Each structure stands twice: as structure tokens, then as C-alpha cells.
Amino acid sequence: MLNEREAESCYLGQFIPLQYHHNMLMDANRMDNFKAAIQRQVFEGAKVLELGGGTGVLSWFAAQSAAKVYCVEFNPDMVAEARRLLAKNRYGERVEVIHDDAFEYLPPEPVDVVICEMIHVGMLREKQVEVIENFKKRYAAKFGDKMPVFIPEAVVMAVQPLQQTYDFLGYQAPIIQFTQPGVFSADTRELGQPALYSVIDFCQPNDLHISWQGSITIEQAGTLTALRFVTKNILAVLMESSSTIDWLNHYMALPVAEPLAVQPGDVIDISFQYRTGGSIQSLQHALQVSLRNSATEAIADVVTAPAVAA
Questions:
Q1: Residue 40 backbone phi and psi in degrees, to 5
Q2: Which residues form the Methyltransferase domain (predicted)?
Q3: Secondary structure of residue 5 in the 3-state scheme
């Protein structure tokens, strides 16, 4: 019988099958940037904690320099798999894989770096923010106020109006879509610039609820059929070069209920709220969009209809 946390993890897709972890290992964008950030932040002899270790690959990156890595994983199947895989790799013995709940675990000693990759677009579905905020409180109570470095250090989120085609061999199916960032598709037209709606800095206290009201000016004529949600994870800040090591999540496009014809100069008013770690449907149900037409100033309220979450 699953406990409440395990049941929620299964529902939100956090107990994902091993083949999905293989896809993450094959994601060069994710792997290269996490490796670079971990190499940057983990110094020789450091103590490292990873919350939500999966296959253990990020802990293994840290083990190249760290003296000790505590790798915490809640899924018992992945605990066994991580131990098996780490045993095949040099420095794998520096990683201790621990079957425990990241909401409850504290290392037996202070650590220098905390790695946590429980990240989904918009900080939905997975519990990244809640896990880190909970950890900081418990860690401070045990070891004092000096916090370890967090990887990622921050998350930046934006929303953008799209003309998204939902024609599949004549079958009209407006559904949630996930696409690779930076990959051009003839099915997608950007109607305006992305608007920043949230910045989460893990060095600071963070609210678990996100709420935003804002406007975007339309730059291209077209039909508004979806809103794209963009999530950039700042894995490490390079102070000497005023740059960052980033990981950009897949884009998520949410369809609107009724397409809206738009012209350059029109303004789209958008509002939504959701709890970090919540379902995609919770964002959809709260999402409201209204059009201020530049020619007529007519206002048409549109609320996105629920769709099946990916």
C-alpha cells in the first residue's frame, strides 16, 4: 500500500519508469550544463547532497571532486538502479545512495553543495520549490544559518502568445504540447515577446504560490491559439564573467479555448495563479486571457478549457 506522498508522486509522474531516465541521460542540453555547473561549484574534498538522485548521474559528476556525496532517492526501484550503475563507474564509491524522502532527510554533517533536479516547466508537477524551502528550514535548525550552494541557484519563468497549429492529418486536436527550445517549427508562430512572470532565487525564501497579472503587445498578425510557458534554470552564476550556466526546459504550449484573431498593436491581458508542484490542470483552470483590440478597443474574455495533461 502506497503512503500519501508515494501516491501523489505516482499521480504527478514523479515515479517515472527507467526508460524515461534513459531519455534524460541522452539529453545533451541537460547533461552538459549540469556537468559544467557541478564542476564549477564542487571543489576538491567538498561534501555534497543530491535530493532526488534518479540514476545517480549528477551525484557521480559531483564525485569527481567531492570527498563524499549523499544521494537521496524516494523511489525504491531507482535506489537499486542507482547503486547498480554507480558501482560500474570510477568514483562511484564516493556516492552513498540513500532510500529516503527528500522532504525529511538531512545529512549527518554540513554539506557545501546541494543538487536538486525535481524540475518541470513552470515548476509544476515536481516538488523542487517545496523540497528546497523545506530543506532550508530543517538544515538551519540543525546546522545553523549558513546555507550550502544550491544547483540550480535560480529559476526564471516567462509566458508568450503563440499561433500554434493543431491539425493532425485533418484531425483538430488542441492539446498541451512540449517542444525543444530553439528548434524551428512551421506549426508555431510567435505573436509577441515573452513576458517574465516569476523569478525564484533559492538563496532567498520563496512563496510556494505563483500569481501573475500582466500584458503582452502583439507584434505579428495571426490567430492566438496558445500560450507558451518558458522555464530557464540558472544552474550557476559566474561572477567574474557576469554570465550564467543555464538549462532551458522544454517549452510548454497550453491551448486557449477559442482562437482569437490578433493584429500588431493589440494587447493581450493574462492572469493566472498556481501552487508550485501542482498539476498542469491547476494552471489551466486558473488561466484567463482577454484581448484589447487596437482598432476597436473591444474586449473579449477567453478562459482556457481544461485539457489532458502530458
A1: -70, -40
A2: 48-135
A3: helix
Domains annotated on the chain, with CATH = 4-117 (3.40.50.150), 154-303 (2.70.160.11)
Instruction: State how far Cα 240 lies from the chain centre.
Output: 27
Q: pLDDT 10s digit of each residue in the chain, 310 long?
A: 445 554 555 444 456 677 777 888 888 999 999 999 999 999 999 999 999 999 999 999 999 999 999 999 999 999 999 999 999 999 999 999 999 999 999 999 999 999 999 999 999 999 999 999 999 999 999 999 999 999 999 999 999 999 999 999 999 999 999 999 988 888 999 999 999 999 999 999 999 999 999 999 999 999 999 999 999 999 999 988 999 999 999 999 999 988 999 999 999 999 999 999 999 999 999 999 999 876 555 444 555 544 444 4
Mapping DSSP to helix (H, G, I), strand (E, B) and coil, where does residue 93 land? helix
Q: How many CB atoms lie within 10 A of CB 211?
A: 12
CA atoms within 13 A on the CB side of 73: 23
The DSSP letter of residue 80 is: H
Nearest C-alpha neighbor of 23 from the set 205, 243, 218, 250: 250
Copy the grid coordinates of residue 220. 505579428
Q: Is the peptide bond before 108 cis (omega within 30 degrees of 0)?
A: no
- Record the cell numbers describing residue 278, joined without a space: 501542482
Confirm if 275 and 8 have CB atoms less than 8 A apart: no
